[in-house]
Specification:
Strand order of the largest sheet: 1-2
Largest sheet: 2 strands, antiparallel
Number of helices: 7
Shape: globular
Distance between the termini: 35 Å
Mean pLDDT: 97
Strand content: under 5%
Number of strands: 2
Low-confidence stretches: none
């Protein structure tokens, strides 16, 4: 199953900006494996004096962006799980800005964030490996829009690309 199998009816158009960053030949499982390695390497390479840097007053620090990736992955893993189990209950949205302060990301070490990301990503990969193709194609509803289980997973890959690009452009 590759990103090219995904249909526009499986997700809200807003997520196109993330999905369009994923190379067309990317398969779901291999994409997750490769992204785990590249994301860990990327955040390990950031100089320690840049980890709490904010490029503007009301923007997140690099650590807060990393925590945002982790938090969002948790939310989308949950969505993927519920939808893949053919749960047709409408899943609520979330306001990522409300998660920043209570996350205490700025007080965490980069090692703790790396371990947290690795653990959450590996958990998502175990879930994906346990799902059948029909379950991944199942379309539920999240935040008032259609969302398939596989779209929830692919969105996470694109979301990570998006934020790493932002860090490269505005923080480093």
């Amino acid at each position: 199953m590759t990103i090219t199998d995904l249909k526009e009816t499986e997700y809200n158009a807003y997520y196109g900006k993330y999905l369009n960053l994923i190379p067309r030949e990317t398969s779901l499982i291999e994409g997750f494996k490769n992204d785990l390695i590249t994301t860990l390497e990327f955040f390990q390479s950031i100089p320690s004096d840049k980890l709490n840097f904010k490029y503007a007053k009301d923007k997140w620090s690099v650590k807060e962006v990393f925590q945002h990736l982790i938090d969002t992955e948790r939310v989308f893993q949950y969505r993927c799980f519920r939808i893949a189990r053919h749960d047709s209950t409408s899943l609520s949205g979330f306001d990522e800005n409300n998660y920043t302060k209570p996350s205490q990301a700025s007080n965490k070490s980069i090692e703790a964030l790396l371990e947290e990301f690795k653990t959450v990503r590996q958990s998502f990969m175990v879930l994906l490996n346990s799902l059948g193709e029909n379950d991944l194609k199942f379309v539920g509803e999240a935040n008032g829009s259609p969302l398939s289980a596989r779209a929830a997973a692919f969105i996470i890959l694109g979301h990570t690309f998006w934020h790493i690009n932002v860090i490269k452009e505005r923080y480093l």
